[in-house]
Design brief:
The complex is a heterodimer of chains A (about 425) and B (about 350). With about 425 residues, chain A is of the alpha+beta class. Chain A has 20 helices and 8 strands. Chain A folds into 3 domains: about 25 residues, no CATH class; about 180 residues, D-Maltodextrin-Binding Protein, domain 2 (3-Layer(aba) Sandwich), CATH 3.40.190.10; about 220 residues, Periplasmic binding protein-like II (D-Maltodextrin-Binding Protein, domain 2), CATH 3.40.190. Chain B has a two-stranded antiparallel sheet with strand order 1-2. Chain B is flat and about 95 Å long. Classes of the chains: A alpha+beta (about 425), B mainly alpha (about 350).
């Protein structure tokens, strides 16, 4: 451990040296004026908060500063979660430069869990039982330290085009569609085949997006909790791969549009596909991409029971000089009342138990989605999540390799068998 | 060769000239102080003499030292430190692990992605550099001829260079969409099949090379233009009297006269081409160079190893391999230039 620390110091010295060259004077000055690292004194301090995409915190920050006159909050927003991840990794490696509160997305939380000692233990009686169990479990390390306060979750439902359903002679109202789709992957794909018989429009957007929903229901997909890589030998992974390829390619249900690609975005204006797996935050994405398109709706069901996709945490790195204040502020931000306000603002669905039963949440409807009661639907979907999948430190690169394997099948650059073999080779190359 | 001779003779002249002048000054001082001082002044004179000799020897080094100090800190040190990292297991956050010798190099060289990345890098480099230099030359000739509103056109060719590379990629990506892109739409109008820009290896390289060319052609054209304007106009007039056409003068006067500039542009675009990163990284939403690594270049590969897999050991090994490739190409460049230079001497 000592050699590690020393080398880290050496690395950080380089990084700090380079940063100093590119002028970073002002923030260093602000920090050094703080008298006490533990923050027991109440002099004026500046807390830095780093988030990405949309957390909906702007008004809440103003509110907090009004009630805490000694605290100034600086909000740094990264445009994408990948950018935030790069920034966090780099500065964690350098040993300095992180904000007092760093937002972390659930997908890259596992790779940080093995370095959980770089984050402050946020356990506190005040917050016990605040969140959904699986949300807390994912951010608790082996020694029982809680390193992140849950902000939002991504409980998944199915979003669908009611107008296209009608044209294919299928029911289009929410309850009947939920019945039709059923609650298993088999029934979801069967409904797709029924739809495909009457319509030219593909059933779902891509293998990769559908895979995401399926893999999050496997208890330990790529790595065993003991630390072995099992991705290539786990029969569940291969079966799921075969199932999604059969539905998407053999039965022709996939539109073969990779999520977030330019073609995918453009396809919302062109009847690209009839359904998609739909976490709470996707509602806003669809509304943005499909501006002017009528017919989108949300069905209160999800194949395989419940599923979660995305959602974030607020962490306090041990680098912070104001750990106590940062912890208090993070606890306030992630309280049910505040997260409901964030949901109303940007649609980030709260991960707090109390928020799910709140009438303020249940009353939320979205006009674009045929006035669907999204608050109520996603609260039901959040409660249906039972599996908290184990994700080891290599989850991110292995899942990337799988996504690319599925893309190869979709664009026709490899047969399903060849693409699987390449996936196996890619996972082995990770070493 | 003429420049080289002057370059060599300049320092020799200064070294000779300066001490001569300096020597003269103490001599004059001791002569005027001689009657009054005696022993002491001559000692002081010797001291000053020594000091001035030291000054002439050391100060040139002091003047050039800022470059070498900065180069040492931001160039040489990272280079050596990277070599050190490449010999260890090294995690982005966890830091240094066990010493593993050349295992990282072995691992990387055994992976299909490494050789794939080498191929992609050279393919994109050739597809961008060759048409770029040719197009830049032709544009420069057009700008050099008597067209109206010269300033406007010259500003115009530089405009793409001012746009941030990422913005260029975002716009071009929209054009190169596989299904809803404008380029495929246009191809459809003339009856051609849509091109799978994000699937076919060569098509993806073409699309990326197009972005690079868009950005750099104008810049290189201006460099060529500047060089062209130093060619004496008499040559062209003489050729015209001899009855040479435009094409003949281009190949017999313009191109030979621009030889040094062409070499310069080739070298700079080689360095840029081998380090290409922004365009392929932004070419799709994952930034890893495609599902089958169709357009993964060496720098993208390096970045993925370091920041995605967090394997700094292997990333450093790739960085060194890239460095060695660039050195190898620089050596080739050097010999090519020497041959061209000696051929010029023969004339």
């Amino acid at each position: 451990m000592t050699t590690r620390t020393q080398s880290l110091k050496a690395l950080s010295a380089v990084a700090v040296g380079l940063l100093a060259l590119s002028a970073c004077g002002s923030s260093a000055g602000a920090d050094s004026s703080a008298p006490d690292p533990l923050g027991t004194t109440s002099g004026p301090i500046t807390l830095k908060l780093a988030t990405f995409n949309q957390f909906g915190y702007e008004d809440l920050i103003t509110e907090y500063m009004a009630t805490h006159s000694n605290i100034t909050i600086e909000h740094k927003k990264a445009a994408t979660s990948n950018e935030a991840r790069d920034n966090l990794n780099t500065r964690l490696a350098a040993g300095s430069g992180l904000s007092d509160i760093e937002a972390v997305e659930v997908d890259w939380l596992p790779e940080l869990m093995q370095y959980s000692d770089k984050f402050v233990d946020l356990t506190s009686p005040e917050v016990t039982g605040r969140w959904l169990d699986w949300k807390v479990k994912a951010a608790t390390d082996e020694e029982g330290r809680l390193i992140g306060y849950g902000t939002d979750v991504g409980p998944e439902a199915i979003c669908y085009r009611g107008d296209l359903f009608e044209k294919a002679g299928l029911p289009s109202d929410r309850e009947a569609v939920a019945q039709l789709l059923g609650n298993t992957w088999d029934s979801y794909f069967a409904a797709g085949r029924q739809f495909a018989a009457k319509s030219e429009v593909p059933w779902f957007d891509s293998l990769g997006a559908t895979w995401q929903g399926m893999v999050n229901q496997i208890q330990a997909a790529y790595e065993s909790p003991a630390g072995d890589v099992i991705a290539t030998t786990n029969p569940e992974v291969k079966q799921t791969y075969d199932a999604v390829v059969k539905a998407g390619i053999t039965d022709g249900l996939s539109a073969k549009l990779q999520q977030w690609s330019d073609d995918w975005v453009a396809s919302f204006q062109d009847n690209g596909f009839a359904t998609m797996l739909c976490p709470g935050w996707m509602v806003g994405v669809i509304e943005g991409n499909a501006k002017g398109v009528k017919g989108w709706d949300v069905a209160n069901t999800f194949p395989g029971g419940g599923g979660n996709w995305g959602g974030s945490y607020l962490t306090v790195p041990t680098q912070s000089e104001h750990q106590a204040e940062a912890k208090a502020f993070a606890a306030w931000l992630t309280a049910p009342e505040q997260q409901i306000k964030a949901f109303q603002k940007v649609g980030a669905f709260p991960s707090q138990q109390a928020a799910l039963d709140s009438p303020d949440l249940a009353s939320v409807t979205v006009p674009f989605f045929n006035d669907a009661p999204t608050g109520q639907i996603f609260a039901d979907r959040a409660k249906a999540v039972t599996v908290s999948p184990f994700k080891g430190p290599k989850y991110f690169p292995i899942n990337d390799a799988m996504q690319q394997a599925l893309t190869r099948v979709e664009d026709g650059s490899a047969t399903p068998e060849v693409s699987w073999e390449k996936f196996v080779a890619d996972v082995q190359a990770l070493g | 060769m003429l420049e080289m001779d002057t370059a060599r003779s300049t320092p020799r002249d200064t070294v000779d000239a300066v001490p001569a002048g300096e020597r003269a000054v103490p001599a004059r001082t001791s002569a005027s102080a001689g009657p009054a001082g005696g022993h002491h002044p001559s000692q002081r004179a010797r001291w000053r003499q020594r000091l001035s000799r030291f000054d002439t020897k050391a100060s040139p080094y002091a003047y050039i030292s800022p470059f070498f100090i900065i180069f040492g800190v931001v160039g040489l040190f990272p280079l050596l430190y990277t070599a050190w990292v490449s010999l260890h297991e090294w995690h982005l956050i966890g830091g240094q692990g066990d010493f593993v010798g050349l295992k990282n190099f072995q691992d990387v060289l055994e992976q299909r992605f490494f050789w794939n990345a080498v191929r992609n890098t050279f393919s994109i480099f050739l597809l961008s550099s060759v048409p770029q230099v040719i197009a830049a030359l032709l544009i420069a000739v057009a700008l050099d001829s008597g067209i109206r509103a010269k300033g406007f056109w010259r500003m115009g060719v530089l405009l793409p260079y001012v746009i941030a590379p990422v913005a260029v990629v975002l716009i071009f990506n929209d054009l190169f969409g596989d299904r809803y892109g404008l380029v495929n739409e246009l191809l459809g109008w003339v009856g051609l099949d849509p091109v799978q820009w994000h699937k076919d290896t060569l098509s993806s390289h073409l699309a990326i090379a197009t972005m690079v060319n868009f950005r750099w052609t104008g810049y290189n054209a201006l460099i060529f233009l500047a060089a062209m304007q130093t060619i004496p106009r008499d040559y062209y007039e003489a050729a015209l009297i001899d009855g040479a056409g435009r094409i003949r003068t281009f190949f017999s006067i313009t191109v030979p006269q621009l030889r040094a500039t062409i070499i310069f542009v080739t070298i700079t675009s080689t360095i840029g081409g081998l380090q290409i990163f922004d365009e392929p990284r932004m070419f799709d939403q994952y930034g890893q160079g495609g599902a089958d690594r169709q357009w993964q270049t060496l720098t993208i590969y390096l970045y993925n190893l370091g920041w995605n897999q967090k394997n700094f050991g292997r990333a450093s090994a790739v960085a060194w391999l890239l460095f060695l490739i660039i050195v190898a190409i620089a050596v080739v460049n050097f010999f090519v230039i020497r041959r061209i230079a000696s051929r010029e001497e023969e004339r």
